[in-house]
């Protein structure tokens, strides 16, 4: 902790005069010099120096924000937490969100004149025992140009906002004394033009800062080859701080559980014979063969500990390096990507670094929480969109078992084709790709290298690909832009066809064309903006049955909502921990998106496009994916035989899982029984006998009107897994074991017979003691993000569906029934609507409805009934799909059964309010007060139902949830048909079978008091 007052001069040693050969960094204007990727930065390597390092991470850095890099610092300092973006720590430079537009109009490589520049400074005591050792400063990441000084001397410059820069500061420090470290970060630069990614723009130091020391004789790099056959090869590079290597150095290694590695004498002899022995770059190779090797995969992340030792000529140890080795092989054979010889489905998700309080600074514990959540919902792969992640995340992916597409920090979206062939950026492309590979090459989790994202395609990509293929031939590489216009062309810069947002028809047609030349794995698909991810199950049904299709990466994991303090309009910052829960910001706060900080230009809520809310609460679409990716599948057998269970994994049997049966009968409650999973190797199937008596009473129950029945296999973890505790549900496959009996014709009687007779007024509107708004026709929903950006919402507004006006036509009271005809004018002609009311013998009120949509009324949101209840009905019980939200094209993850929830918990708080909270396949439901009274509804067949506190117009009028005021009563929608969700905010809309067109729709329901 620094006890000095903020605005006093540093107490460290006086600044050292820079040697004449050192230019002043500011004179170089590195923020507008794309040819300059770094200055005095050390080569990237894979020797992990975090253990034993001196951390400089804390909130006692002195800081000041300058308006431009040319402006000299003043004496006006404040404190700032490092790592941490200054844009989330109460400065006047606030976050800005753009999807692809650069925040300023200047062309590359120029930066704006107003260019926030943060000066970070602190004193640090260098241990006296570091005297005579090599001292290194490592800055984990800085956006976007880093200028490092120690004791007044410039020690280096670095670019790349998502990889570490290391500088040798040995000559600039004094051991045993206080030293002043100054890190100046320029926010906008030539590099920003190739970091034009779809997330918030921030400024600052966003990953850890540390110092470490090594012996002058040190390990410069370690490169590990560990294929699935167990033949380990370790290549070691050695350097000395003074230049020449001492004669007699050597390296050794030990693999846990195996023993010492052997020197590769053949390699050493070859180097001597070919005159490849250097005086200043030492190279050695170690070998081992692991018997009965345990292979690494996402399902079986087996790791071996490896120690590499560097010995001085006298045999003493000068340096060590610890690694975790996963033995696995990645290869492409034909149109298949193989892991350890197996064609593996890539069930992936794109993931940005994000935190709602800090922007993009996240701790290892938070990274673990991300990856554990990803694993629990059935994903086996992550694309590090669109830059290399913190090394801690790769360590976790190795440990937990996730395949990574490791992506270089290159996206020049706004000026893509110009930069792709611009020789001024050639060095930056190669530098960013090569440094990523040099750092991450030893991680088993990395199965594919990516050259970046949305940067068109040019010579700079081919140059980077050429370096990569030479250095690491063991992994394929991908780049979407290289095959964007020719899916069957030569794969110079992409071994994988990785389109983004291609339609289901496009990918299946290509796979069937006979022209496919490489695996097809979508780098982005199923855009998760708002209430989305429709047709995900349709995609996977095709992927799992079509040779050549192998999966993809959903866009994306996070909703990038920064927590905003409403009173100030600023980011709440790191101190606001706990000001949110269950996806909802606390009172006085809201989730901010583009434009909420006054940022211009901006792209609005397009950053709210994740599978989890900003606090990592899973959205309903996560449960959809979990079921689609289920490791255990359940299917009906022929009549009289038990259901069949299949192990859908690639490498693991099912012994790590346990299961329980749950039988749900529509009118007969729920029964459970244990299930004993058989021994099932990967890909195997077997019958799964049911416990005696589980279905014994089912035929009689159905005969007595017990309704349909569904059998669910709830599969959970048998023991603690690294990513989930014992008992975590993994999937819940379900089969129907009894069909719903055809409904008998209702026995309608005269309205005058019952005291609860329906009151239909002269306008034909039902007046009921439990309803505050009568049931009327509804054809519109509060537009989802897909509806808005895909054009459906404009179509509905043009037709006037958002402002329907009911025009009564006739009220006919004959034969004990009341027949009401109405018309609803639209831009395509009137919709004819009929309601027939009749009392049932059990005090129920039967409402039979018909709607006729004219030919011009295409692609409507819904066809159904809307009404509002009295206040005080706070609980919903239903038989249908649930318990979470489901929609017609996103309902695989909602098993049919008996569910219950508080009404306030049915609504899904998507960042921009929109249609939400629906449940598919509802057969019946009850809305109850705290005392158990209320109303019940039974539907003629499974229908889409929603119960919330908001009218559709309430949701459509709000841009954030703090603008919503929940109503005391319930707004209920009973839909005969409901449009699918699709993904049209960025990608294909829902499939034709999930759209609603002209024609006649019929539905009926029974309302009764409870």
From TrEMBL:
The record's annotation in PANTHER family points to: BETA-GALACTOSIDASE
Does Transmembrane helix show up as a keyword for this record? no
* PROSITE patterns given in the database record: GLYCOSYL_HYDROL_F2_1, GLYCOSYL_HYDROL_F2_2
Q: Name one GO cellular component term.
A: beta-galactosidase complex
The record's listing under Pfam families reads: Bgal_small_N, Glyco_hydro_2, Glyco_hydro_2_C, Glyco_hydro_2_N, LacZ_4
* Annotated SMART domains: Bgal_small_N
Q: What is its EC number?
A: 3.2.1.23
This chain belongs to the protein called Beta-galactosidase
BP GO terms, sorted = lactose catabolic process
Q: Which reaction does it catalyse?
A: Hydrolysis of terminal non-reducing beta-D-galactose residues in beta-D-galactosides
Q: Where is the Beta galactosidase small chain/ domain?
A: 754-1008
Q: Which UniProt keywords apply?
A: Glycosidase, Hydrolase
Instruction: Enumerate the InterPro entries for this protein.
Output: B-gal_small/dom_5, Bact_Beta-galactosidase, Beta-gal/glucu_dom_sf, Gal_mutarotase_sf_dom, Galactose-bd-like_sf, GH, GH-type_carb-bd, Glyco_hydro_2
GO molecular function (one):
beta-galactosidase activity
Region: Disordered; residue ranges are 1-30
Please give the family membership noted in the entry: Belongs to the glycosyl hydrolase 2 family.
Under the heading Gene3D superfamilies, the entry gives:
2.70.98.10, Galactose-binding domain-like (2.60.120.260), Glycosidases (3.20.20.80), Immunoglobulins (2.60.40.10)
| Ranges annotated as biased composition (Pro residues) | 1-23
